[in-house]
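Think of the structure tokens as a kind of shorthand, similar to the way a musician reads notation: each symbol stands for something richer, in this case the local conformation of the backbone. In the example below we present two proteins back to back. Begin with the first one, reading the sequence and then the tokens, and try to describe in your own words what changes along the chain.
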Amino acid sequence: MDAAIAGLIGAAIGAVAGMAGTLITSYLQAKQEHAKWIRDKRVEAYSNTIRYLVRALNKRSSLAIEGSTLTSVMGKDVIKEWFDDLSEILVWLSAVSIYCSKNQQSKIAHTTQVVNKAVCDFVNSGSATSDLQNVISTALGIVEECARQDVGRVVK
């Protein structure tokens, strides 16, 4: 075998190896960027869901003293904002159901259905505010736990 042919074969092998390395690196980088994008979407969806659940739970317009007890009051001035927060909860729960891991999908889907039903019952039939607040409080606990498992660390 002549030296020129050996050099040509060596150059071809080097070119193929270089192209294969480039393709593998590009593939792995794209896969890593997609995983980061999904994680960022999960963080956004979970944090906004938690934000609106907490807002809906704590929406008040004033404090009142009845005897020796301090009570919070949701006046008419914040009702529209409260309904907006309830709508945002449902929007962000839907986003969480899209981006959550497969391990959390059934919990999030069930929570979304329960919250949606409670909001509809409240809006359509005037069920008690406390019933809706209890559902939202339970949903907050479930979403926080799912978020810990999906994007955070599990607290032991």
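Once you have a description of the first chain, move to the second and do the same.
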Amino acid sequence: MIQEEGIVTAVHNGKATIEINKTAAEACARCGVCISAGDVKRLLEIQTIAGLSAGNKVILKIDTPSAYKGIALLLLFPLLAFFFGCIVGEKVTFILPESTNLRMGIFGLLSFSISLLGASLYDKRLRAKGFRPPVIVSVEGERPEDAEG
């Protein structure tokens, strides 16, 4: 999660355009929420709250994807699944009883493939849930809940 400070440039049709002045950072580039063309002003268009107008300073909470979860899903789990499949292939002797190495390879690749299929299905489910947009945390020292009511 990143917290950014910005200035509301426009409010129309229930959307607020917020300008963030910040040079490109690694976390900023990984997030992919902003519309920008380099190290210039970054613009966000998010759902507005009651009482928000152009010129207000706001603090935004932006959820970022976890790099560790991606590494685990695409590297760690398939590798562990491959080793687990090899161990199972060594213990199962009724399939190809005369060729232990072939059996271990088949079971290892099968479990590796299943783990990649699981990661693909998990990714598809996350994409179907959609992207969580940035949220306004505070407006010029006020909490958004106070501004609404």
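Compare your description with these statements about the second chain. The longest strand covers residues 2-12.
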